[in-house]
Every structure is written in structure tokens, then in C-alpha cells.
Amino acid sequence: MNVKKFFAAATAATLALTLAACGGEGAGDPDPTTAGPVDAVDARIGVAMPTQTSERWIADGAAVEAGLEALGYTVDLQFAGDDIPVQAQQIDQMITNGADLLIIAAIDGTALAGQLQTAADAGIPVIAYDRLIRDSANVDFYVTFDNYQVGVQQATSLLVGLGILNADGSAGDATGPFNVELFAGSLDDNNAFFFFEGAEDTLAPYVADGTLVIKSGQTTIDQVATLRWQQETAQRRMEDLLTSTYSDGSKVDGVLSPYDGLSRGIITALQNAGYGDNMPVVTGQDAEIASVKLIADGVQFASIFKDTRKLADQAVIAAQDFLAGKTPEANDTSTYDNGVKVVPSYLLESDIVYADNIQSLLVDSGYWTADEVASGIAE
Ligand code: GAL
To answer: How far is the CA of 185 from the centre of ligand 1 (A)?
Structure first.
């Protein structure tokens, strides 16, 4: 995916115009929300991303960087290799290097309180990116998707794949019972709880009436979580489930997976166990290119498309507002309580990706090219 594709030209132009109207001093104001404007040419923005092992974060980092640079800001973009102390050090370094604002996608949403206190003391606004930073008063804004709704969509795609629902939401013909297994994300990522809750609430009536059977009995988020969203960990758990629960000749019909990386690990475990021609319905998230190809090929059933270009745009708009001494516009001021305060948020919408809407959702919008979908490799 070409970086330049990420930052919608129209938005960049609008932002540049708005920015041109700003100027002045004030980065030293200890209250970031009332800080005066910072001159674009002088402004330095630290962007802390969790890892480069997932292509989505590479894309997010590149998109945020491109958007900020288009406005004339200096960007310090760092990836932390999913290592919590490394991310803390990177943020310390950004502050030492004179950051005027921080945009942070945390690895562990509870581990950055010290860094954020230092930032607050220096009057540096902090924007939480995609993942909420918890247990700190010093988070000024949050840009993300409607994460509960993502979970609803993941569960909905599972029900559609099983034929219990039709894609338009009406009741399908299938009645089950179907054997399903649940996976969740990393417990140190606040999003994992929202995804799981949205999915749980959606699946609950079908579990209650016996249409869905969670045969392993592993139903709580603690039992089904995947530390650091690791593909290998999900693969191992799926292998263990197949051995412990399905060696009696019974079959898995569906797997709720909250992220494409996990889905690919789950699919590998299923393929190794002989499910190749009769793959269960496996869900996902992020529309990663390798998974989009698997969906096109009928191997993975669905994913959730969260347009990272739009998320990056929102982060850039919020950054620009803070640096101009303004409060960014929130569209949600009730959902994201981080344990200390409700963080004003801007939520974006997501879409379910099925084989038959890859073209309209992902190719027509320029997110992936037809060649990338065909090869499963980002260019
Ligand atoms: C979550 C994010 C998901 C997925 C996951 C694993 O925080 O919201 O979209 O990327 O991390 O990286």
C-alpha cells in the first residue's frame, strides 16, 4: 500500500489552509487543552506505534507521518516492537527531544502513566490513537473506531457465515447446532474488551437457545485472550482446542477471531488438522492484505475494514487543533472512561468485508489494488 494513498489529498488541502491561518507561541502552557498556538514550522510531533509485525500499524504510522508532514510539522515516528519498556523509553525520548504533541498507540494501555505525567508537566497534549491509554488523567483526546460495534460486526459475520443470519441482517435458514470457539485480543489492550463484549452480546441469544455450542466451555475473555495479539499464540491455542475438544470426531463450525493475524494462525492450525476442504467460518479484523486474499479465495470468511487513512486524518486534525490552541471536536464524550476520566473521543465507523464486497469496499476506495488482492502482498 502506497503511503501517499493514505492521506486524502482533499483533507490535506483543507488542513493546510486552516493551518496557514494559525501562528504564535504557547507550547509551554501547562494545560494542553488551553495551550496557545504553536507555529507549524517549529512544531515537533512524536508518534509512538506499537509494532511493525502487523502491517496495519506500519500503514497507520506512515499515514499519520505523511499527514503531519504535509502540514509542515516535524515528525518523530517510532515503533516499539511490542515491547512495553521500549515504548516507554521512546516516549521519554520524544519528550526530551522537544515534542510539542504526542500521538500514541499504546502496547499496554496501563503502562504509560509516568510518561504522560511528564508530558502534562511540560504542557504537551496527548492523543491516544486507536487504543485508549488507561489510568491517567493526562490523555487529552482519543481517535478510534466504534470498538463495541466492531465486535458486533465480527459476531454478525460469524452468524452470516454459518447461515444463521443473512448479510442483510434477516434470519437465515440454518438452525445448527454449530460448534464454535471464541478468541479475544490482548488483555492489556482496552479494545480487546470492547470487541469481545460486542461479540458476546450479539452471540448470547444463539448460545442461550442452543444454536451455537462453545464446545470447549472456554467462554470468558480471560480464557480466550491472546497476549500481544500474537498469531503463533492463537495457532497454538487452536491446536490445543482441536486436541482437547475435537478429537472425538466432532467438527469446529466457526471461530470468532478478533484480528486477521490471529485468524491466519487459527486457519493454519485448522489446515494442519485436515480442515482444508471444509474450513470453518473464521472471522477477523483489519482487512490485512494476506487475509483479504484468503477471503477472496474462500478460506477466511470475513474481516472488518477500519479505514486507517480516516483514522490518521482524524489524528492529524486533532493534533492541528491542539497546536492551534483549540479543543478538537469529539463525537463521543461518554464511552471511553479510562479509569480516571472519560476521554473525549472521535469514533469512526467500520464495515464487514466479505468476498463479494472486496471490490467495492477495498479496491474501489483505493485501499488495496486488485493486484495486491490477487497476490496477497502489499506493494
Ligand atoms: C487493536 C486494534 C485492532 C488490531 C489489534 C491488533 O488494538 O484496534 O485493529 O490491529 O489491535 O493489532
So the answer is: 8
